[in-house]
Amino acid sequence: MDDIHKVLKSIRITEDQILEISFLDDVLVYKGKVQTIYETIDLMTQGQRLHKLIIIGKQTQITKEARFLIVENNAVRKQNIIAEAIIVHSFYQKLSANFYIYFIHHYYPIQFFTDIEKGKDWLMQLA
What we know:
Layout: E1 8-13, E2 18-23, E3 28-29, H1 31-45, E4 50-55, E5 61-62, H2 64-76, E6 81-87, H3 91-104, E7 110-113, H4 116-125
Parallel strand pairs: 2-4, 3-5, 4-6, 6-7
Antiparallel strand pairs: 1-2
Helix pairs in contact: 1-2, 2-3
């Protein structure tokens, strides 16, 4: 099993019932890591319905194969996601987020932000 700590800073459920996934800076996230992250999420959440906050690290990139796997995994888990906020830092990350949002937006509310607090505030409005 891949070590997700090579790409993640943290993964936790906050007191506001937000599943917060924070990526390290300057890493490449590939398909194997994504699958391990989702296995960890499933163990942590046990099917609980939560808001989701994804914080992409600065200069962190996600391979095309990994992005498709993320779309597939979230489509399967759509009933467990109330809404999702993605925090991005670069133009490339915004393009990747738009790609992802295009495929997911009809399952649940989703938006990207450049500020973590604005992302959290938006999630909390969608209780």
